[in-house]
Amino acid sequence: MLKVRNLEVSYGNKIVLKDINFSVSSNEILAIIGPSGAGKTTLIKSIVKLIPFHGEIELNNHEIDLGITTVSFVPQNYGLLPWKTVEQNIYLASRIKKHSRLSKHQKEKIHELMRELKIDKLSKKFPNFISGGQAQRVALARSLSISPDLLIFDEAFSALDPVVKKTAERLFLNQWRKNPTITIMVTHNLDEALKLSTKILVLKNNGTGIIMENPLINKLSDDYSDDKNYFDCLSFLQKEVDDTWEN
Predict the structure, then answer these.
(1) Are 158 and 233 part of one and the same domain?
(2) Is residue 219 part of a domain?
């Protein structure tokens, strides 16, 4: 479980985050939403210890040590190396983690994951010659291939068009259900937060935040078209966000 207690972050005399408290277990996905400048990226940087902070951040009752803890990060631009093929990009994460060449069995497991994400036929292509949706799935495969202790998405679905995005969301959830992982998802999209999270952290302009359960928590899904409560829940979340960001 990831626990954040009394987190405060300042840049000089400016307090960016204060009194942030939440927890995320291995069978939960936390969506972080907030206006520009509310501290979403700062929060992520604090969790992975890229910036100094006050408070406590623990993973499974220990401070996060990037030399021991495996954290997978999927950025908005996917972070693929253009001079390596799709296959090489995915292998690279596992090779770095294991500090050695991959065994035949390890490669077979990665190729099984690639087949499930429908990118196995792209293995010899370079990132500049695949679509945005395909690149997103390659980044997802790379992140999941190392069985992370913590999985972080930073606006990772935002650049996709609606049709491709729906496919990417479905494939992600299929993989996540097979191997639930403590997951944090930074997004500005309320629809995405409802579809892909179990709880939601709404950051305010003043650096504080409120944590709430996803009102559709019992139906974690990429498709709510048949859920009569979906639009009511979306309206409820929109009102909560509007009220929070005005304060």
Answers:
(1) yes
(2) yes
Q: Are 154 and 242 in a shared domain?
A: yes
- Encoding tokens for residue 60? 């499974």
**CA separation, residue 67 to residues 48, 64, 71, 207 (Å):** 11, 9, 10, 30
**Under a CB-based contact definition with an 8 Å cutoff, are residues 147 and 179 in contact?**
yes
Domain endpoint, select from 147, 163, 196? 147
Q: Are strands 182-186 and 29-33 parallel, antiparallel or unpaired?
A: parallel
The last residue of a domain, from among 122, 147, 172: 147
Which of 53, 23, 46 lies closest to 201 in space, CA to CA? 23
pLDDT in tens, the chain (247 residues): 999 999 999 988 889 999 999 999 989 999 999 877 788 989 999 998 889 999 999 999 888 888 888 889 888 888 899 999 999 999 988 877 766 677 888 888 889 989 888 899 999 999 999 998 899 899 989 988 888 899 999 888 877 787 788 888 888 888 888 889 999 999 888 888 888 899 999 998 888 888 988 877 655 555 555 566 777 777 777 777 777 666 5
Grouping H, G, I as helix, E, B as strand and the rest as coil, residue 183 is strand
Range of the domain at 87: 82-147
Domain count along the chain: 2
